[in-house]
Write a structure and sequence with these properties.
mainly alpha, disordered N terminus, 4FE4S_WBL, single chain, binds iron/sulfur cluster
Amino acid sequence: MLLAETSRTPAPAAAPRPEDWRELASCRGVASSVFFSPDGERGHARARREANAQQICQDCPVLAQCRDHALDEDEPYGIWGGMTEADRRRHARRLRSGSRR
Ligand code: SF4
C-alpha cells in the first residue's frame, strides 16, 4: 500500500539553475534599445527611455535577482532590476563610504 501511495506522489521539481531567472524576465522579447542607451542619448530622451524600462521592471518577477546580478557584476550599462546606471553608481558609492541609506 505504501508503494501505491508513493507512486502517486509528484516528482519533486528540479532545482532551478541560478541563471533560470532570465527566462522569467518581463523584458524577454522587448527591444534592448529600451534598456540600453544609444550613443549620445541625453536629457529628456534618456529620462523617458529609462522611465519606460523601469515601468517594465516594476512588475518583473525576477527584479531582485536581476538587480543583484547587476550589482554583483558591476554592470556599467543599461537598466537592470529597475536601476539606472546612475542608480548603480550611487549605490556603489554608498557602499564604499559605508553608508546603508
Ligand atoms: S528587472 Fe527589468 S531588466 Fe531585469 S529582468 Fe526584469 S524586466 Fe528585465
